[in-house]
Design a protein that fits this description.
The protein is mainly alpha-helical and 92 residues long. The chain contains 2 helices and no strands. The chain has a domain of 61 residues.
Length: 92
């Protein structure tokens, strides 16, 4: 779905999730260094990600997209299509 087809709330949530993710990436220290964010802030960020995901899920259900799940292009489908052919008619 394109961003133009999303509601204002969905666009806000998408930008909020993306921006928050960038903040986390930018503030993540190298191994062995102390994290610049406090434990409370880290916990709050995790809770915010959970709330964003929950609201996005609710909006998807309301819009009828609840069953759509992301998948890899090389992922094997969970169902197989089976073609049925009618047997040829027997001559009388």
């Amino acid at each position: 779905m394109s961003i133009e087809g999303l509601s204002k709330e969905q666009r806000i949530l998408r930008v909020l999730r993306k921006t928050l993710g960038n903040i986390v990436k930018d503030t993540t220290p190298r191994p062995g260094f102390a994290h610049p964010l406090s434990e409370n802030t880290i916990r709050d960020i995790k809770e915010l990600f959970a709330l964003i995901a929950e609201r996005e899920r609710e909006l998807a259900q309301e819009a009828g997209f609840a069953e759509e799940r992301p998948h890899f292009s090389d992922e094997q489908p969970s169902a197989q299509v089976v073609d049925f052919h009618k047997p040829p008619k027997k001559p009388n």
